[in-house]
Amino acid sequence: MEGKIVRVAGPLVVAKGLPNVKMFEMVRVGKLQLFGEVIGLDNDLVYIQVYEETQGIGPGEPVYALGEPLSVELGPGLIGQIYDGIQRPLNKLAEVGGDFLSRGLAFPALDRGKKWDFESRVKVGEYVEGGDILGVVQETSALEHRILVPPNLRGKILEIKSGTYTVEDVIGILEDEYGNSHELKLMHKWPVRYQRPVKEKLPPQIPLITGQRVLDTFFPLVKGGTACVPGPFGSGKTIIQHQLAKWADAEVVVYIGCGERGNEMTEVLIEFPELKDPRTGKPLMERTILIANTSNMPVAAREASVFTGITIGEYFRDMGYHVALMADSTSRWAEAMREISGRLGEMPGEEGYPAYLASRVAGFYERAGLVKCLGKEEKIGSVSIIGAVSPPGGDLSDPVVQATLRVTKVFWGLDARLAFSRHFPAVDWLVSYSLYLEPVSNYWKERVAEDYYSLRQEAMSILQREAELQDIVRLVGMEALSPQDRLVLETARSIREDFLHQNALHEVDTYTSPYKQYLMLKNIMNFYKVALTLIEEGYPLDEILKMPEREKIARMKFVPEDRIKELEDLLEEVRKRLEGIKEGLREYV
Amino acid sequence: MSKEYTSVSKISGPLVLVENIENVKYGEVVEVKLSNGEIRQGQVLEAQEGAALVQMFASTQDLSLKGMRIKFLGHVLEINLSPSILGRTFDGLGRPRDGGPEIIPQKRMDINGSPINPYSRAYPSEFIQTGISAIDGMNTIVRGQKIPIFSGAGLPHATLAAQIERQARLLNEEEKFAVVFGAMGLTFEEANFFIENFRSTGALERTVLFINLANDPVIERIATPRFALTAAEYLAFDLDMHVLVILSDMTNYAEALREVSAARKEVPGRRGYPGYLYTDLATLYERAGRIKGKKGSITLIPILTMPEDDRTHPIPDLTGYITEGQIFLSRELYRRGIYPPIDVLQSLSRLMRGGIGEGRTRKDHGDLSNQLYAAYSRGLEAKELAVVLGEAALTEEDVLFLEFSEEFEDKFIRQGEYENRSIFETLDLGWKLLKKLPRASLKRIRPEYLDEFWGKEDAS
Known about the structure:
Chain A is an alpha+beta fold. Chain A contains 16 helices and 26 strands.
């Protein structure tokens, strides 16, 4: 179907002469054949958001409707790729179009020439339904790509073969209940704005271990959970997102760079192939997919990028994998919506954002979750979403932050003042929260240590107490405090500096296992408790603070995981040292 | 394409609506010929069937609905490029301003450029020594970085930018370099200060200037940084040069953008700035960088004056979200007579870690700067407390940190306008200051570096 442009204003193009076009259908615009999507219909006028720069396009040029909505290609070849917001492979665009993005280039997302070793897992005559595993392809050494029956198909396998195939080769034939046969391939397509179906959603229970102490111990996230990371610029949102992409114990990581810096994506591309997953020992790139729609790339494709990312995430979830998805930053996504909405002349809501901002945000986060996947065989998979938000001036009353907080269960609030003193991760422990503490504490009890949760609570109350005491100190000075209170302040400092502060660039400190986290906190709290009994017996605080074991506590973060016994021994050392002092004290008295 | 139209139906602010036309393209350049023969330029902001909304770059004064001849040139705004642009001065729309001849183009480029494919970028990691301790030691800049100076009215941002331009070099090599300077709405004096500085260092013949002064047309400023950056892309990626781009003042640029947006009656975002300010600024700032397989680079230092020194104002705020850090000037330090008045705590270089360490600067650089940050910030907290309660209220350790922070400002941050410190001098100075603090409190530095650089003896 061919129509004609009647108006061009930035990323918005209005066309005529496309009577049968549907909402959200893909179109190609102008002589350059730019990609676009229908976002409004008004009598004979069709409103199109164009994913590419529209300069030089004018009225009278043709518009072609493609007959299908914006869809992604799902199949082997996704892992390790870097795509733009509408799943065009950026490496291919660079090969053909050069170092600068040229317009109107179309490339299939999955390499058509590449052959994969497919091993079938079903038999001829077997009845299968959507989500069943047809067979597997070992896509990378870290990931077995399970080829699924597409969600909307069911029926009898008429034919299936193992062997070496491209994503478009027919690997089998399926006959549905009406007797129609369908060709089965290694890939299938899915429209990005539709959630992929699941059998059942489950309440998330298992922590998503990130190796970041302040997150895992204080404000844990779960597999299938959602987290919101707001903060002003320079507070370390991107570093947190990168740390999660590196160390989260997910089988697949989807990283969406949505309206952010180009060099940040380059950094991931350079760094990830060099880094090894602490659990599998395989390069991190072998489980990572990047969606890069940087701030200077067209704004409409930015709007689509989060949907492209989440759909890919859901696809791997359907195989029974745990997927972690980072979106950095959802504010830029919301701004893209605002820009398009403004050009459409819609009535604005708060701060010029469209009135449907909150429902779009909620719709996106609801695609996360722990689920029973489709298929006869029981598979559990999850998508966890960690969304960065960049509120103007760090102001949390921003509509995007507010809309996000209403739907996410974990809040990691970043604080500019912590960042200024280079305390990273700059997660403000007084305002942040996690609503998953209860399920996670049960997990800790079983898997890590009986008293992990109570330690966490004690440490948290020391930090709270510190905030109160600091108010007092500000009014009347340090002398007004009792030795007990001063010990609280020193312990809080130790928690902040020796536990919460974590250096992402240090080879050991960048990742801490749950057991080591527990031991570190246990040591700090152990010191506190023993010191407290000493103070109560009248031993001077200043002497306690000079003990050499304190420096060991400060160095715990640098102790590698294979020498973790040192931390167990340290507990005993401190106890002995203090008992020795007590002994001396008694004799002295 | 060169058909002339006279059918103007509306003029409002910088916008002109032309009707009964054919074949207009979005973004196309428009020439408006007044009845007295004067020619002014504009650009198509909205292309409709039979009509075009044109944004004029010059003022719309003296324009009338009758008697004007309008020509659509069939191409977008372009710049003529050849190696002979070096040493030349252009106006905000890329026309010679120095009385010299027009440039005979070897290449014409669309001033809007195209985004660099993220896949093609090379990660910037070559340390640039500016000779300024507060930058080199604490907020190291690398080649291909975009890092703005956040300043306020009356602060010495121009002096600082000039010093950076004068002293910046790589540790151990001399390569082809060039400077591109884009002035948006600067006063004559400010612009002249930069030009004189380029002249005094002999850089002028390697400099391209795009000058839009305070009394030049406001809307022209929207194009000025694009001309400057396109010239920079040509020098960097066609001629293999290392280009330093200084854009001043971004606040004037954003205000010009707001003016056009208001004239179009668009829904305003914060403080009346258009909702697309972020995207618009990004299309400028993101043009800095390096490309795999290309020798040249674009390092971008935009200068902006924060209205009321407020870093949450939309212009600095959105800039900070795009750029790779910021150099933040503090009025308080300036009042106390400290030059350069760089507030290191509020400053940041996101690309620092790739540019420092063994083989680049020195292995202790990262830990040392981390520790200086932590210690300085603790010292400032102690100072705040001392102001209220007196020094007597501080613990012994806090007093040490307080003294450290004062010395840090006086000896480390403060330096002369013409003082050029090597990175090693800067690092050694940092260690010297840390000597005064107890070793056990230096938790950000790994023990082996403490042994090597701080000394083994225990201060307590």
